[in-house]
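This section describes the prediction task in plain terms. A model, or a person checking by hand, is given the sequence of a single protein chain and must write out its three-dimensional structure as a string of tokens. No templates, partner chains or ligands are provided. The sample shown here is typical of the held-out split.
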Amino acid sequence: MATPVSAMAFTVFNLSTLAKHINSQSMNEPLGLLLVVIFIVSIVLLLIGATYIIMVERGFIYVDPPDLREMLLAEEKFRGREERTSDEEVGEDLKELLTGSFDIVYRWYFTANEKAARERTRGLHLILLALIMIVLGYSILPFTVE
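The expected answer:
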């Protein structure tokens, strides 16, 4: 998360520096108008990229295995079956239940991490694209009227 956040801070700083060079006189000429468009597109890209980064933070899930009450209810159900069950059989059934629940939790975490990695990468790419747009704006800047 540090890289996208650092890139966002760097982008905001460069946008504020570039904003000093935008004025109403430069908007009357094509390059000045292009500079304004680049500035606006950079802001939009930065905001969309920041949204992806925020979604990564919000997307982390916290899933618990069954709690003790649920385990005791499951044990009662296992013991209440019609066929006679020993303590070893009930223990094996509970172990299978726990193994299954931990497998599900692991798969949820794995899926959430994959999604977070995609969103983090997408957000970083958009922020870097905003920086590229700013570089383009700075390259146009010497040709505009101040």
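For orientation: The chain has a mean pLDDT of 81.
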